[in-house]
Specification:
Elements: E1 2-10, E2 13-21, E3 31-39, H1 42-49, E4 65-73, E5 83-87, E6 102-105, H2 119-142, E7 150-153, H3 159-171, E8 174-179, H4 185-191, E9 195-198, E10 214-219, H5 223-231, E11 233-241, H6 255-259, E12 263-266, H7 274-287, H8 290-296, E13 297-301, H9 305-313, E14 320-324
Parallel strand pairs: 7-8, 7-10, 8-9, 10-11, 11-12, 13-14
Antiparallel strand pairs: 1-2, 3-4, 3-6, 3-14, 4-5
Length: 327
């Protein structure tokens, strides 16, 4: 038996509880992993609270991130005792995820941590840090350059936003942070933002084209915010979209794209091939400032997962929540 959060649907209603689970119920997989650390991402919060249709199969153990040690494996690439981690691949949606003491996983999903990062580091970063780096790689590949280009980061007080700011600052970019919690301005400037603006500047319907204010942006908000971000991006600039905190809609016009040549990049972190994942994690290992990591992250026990999810939607969570699994 092992402990884990289980989401189920009974008579059309979703239920969620921390349960003792028989290991015989674990899904098929080449590797059995003892989980040491997980996280609470926005998607996990949607699943735990039932506020979004994340879970596609029931019953489901949520948690899109996990890190731990291999207990057994039929794949020779992984031996008992190996440190491994997983981000995405349908965890918490179609396959049991990381908010539990055990997992059974496809070996193809497993990565070994870069030498400079511990499993705790990797889960403190989690999908948020990994997604932030994927967005930065897209902007770099577009041709944006530190020292000369200004980058806007929306949803700045969240995990993706915080890591985006910290990594961009380490690279030498000038950063504008957009947040709905202006009381966090000192925190965002400590991460590396040079200016902090209220999200209200961007969250309402705006003009098809605005003043050119930034060369690029990382947006985890969507909705009117993303439309306004694109409208104020400079000629030949780029926006990396990776979230939907405001909504899934995109109430924009084609004006920024056909009059300024703005490029909108979609950032998917779930099904990226492993070579891209390794590139992203190696870049993170090179840039990571552990002082910033500690500033962004705080730790909670497995039993607090649902509470954390509720706090996230109440606007009470800053940065990242690391979940310690007491296996």
């Amino acid at each position: 038996m092992f402990k884990g959060w289980v989401i189920d649907k009974i008579d059309g209603r979703q239920t969620v509880a921390l349960q003792n689970i028989d290991e015989a119920r674990l899904p098929e997989g080449e590797a059995r992993v003892r989980i040491d650390w997980s996280t609470i991402n926005y998607k996990d919060a949607l699943a735990l609270t039932g506020k979004g249709p994340v879970v596609r199969q029931f019953p489901m153990v949520p948690g899109v991130d996990l890190a731990g040690h291999v207990e057994s494996s039929s794949d020779p690439a992984f031996m008992p005792g190996d440190a491994v981690f997983v981000n995405g691949w349908g965890l918490g949606e179609t396959h049991w995820g990381g908010l539990a003491e055990r997992a059974s996983l496809k070996a193809a999903w497993l990565l070994k941590p870069p030498a400079a990062l511990s499993l705790k580091d990797i889960m403190a970063l989690g999908t948020a840090g990994y997604t932030a780096m994927l967005a930065i790689l897209a902007l770099e590949n577009h041709g944006l350059k530190p020292g000369t280009d200004t980058i806007l980061v929306t949803g700045a007080s969240g995990g993706v936003g915080g890591f985006s700011i910290a990594f961009l600052a380490a690279l030498g970019y000038k950063i504008i942070a957009s947040t709905g919690r202006m009381q966090e301005a000192d925190y965002l400037k400590a991460l590396g933002a040079s200016d902090v603006i209220d999200r209200a500047e961007l969250s309402s319907p705006g003009k098809p084209l605005g003043k050119e204010r930034w060369a690029g942006a990382i947006d985890s908000v969507g909705g009117h915010t993303l439309a306004n971000v694109c409208a104020s991006t400079r000629y030949d600039g780029a926006v990396a979209a990776c979230g939907l905190a405001q909504g899934m809609d995109f109430p924009a016009t084609v004006a920024p794209f056909i009059l300024r040549g703005v490029t909108l990049y979609g950032i998917d972190s779930v099904y990226k091939p492993n070579d891209i994942r390794r590139t992203a994690w190696e870049r993170i290992a090179q840039l990571l400032d552990r002082t910033q990591l500690e500033r962004i992250t705080h730790e909670r026990p497995l039993a607090d997962a649902l509470t954390v999810a509720e706090e996230l939607f109440a606007g009470k969570v800053r940065g990242r929540v690391l979940i310690k699994i007491d296996a």
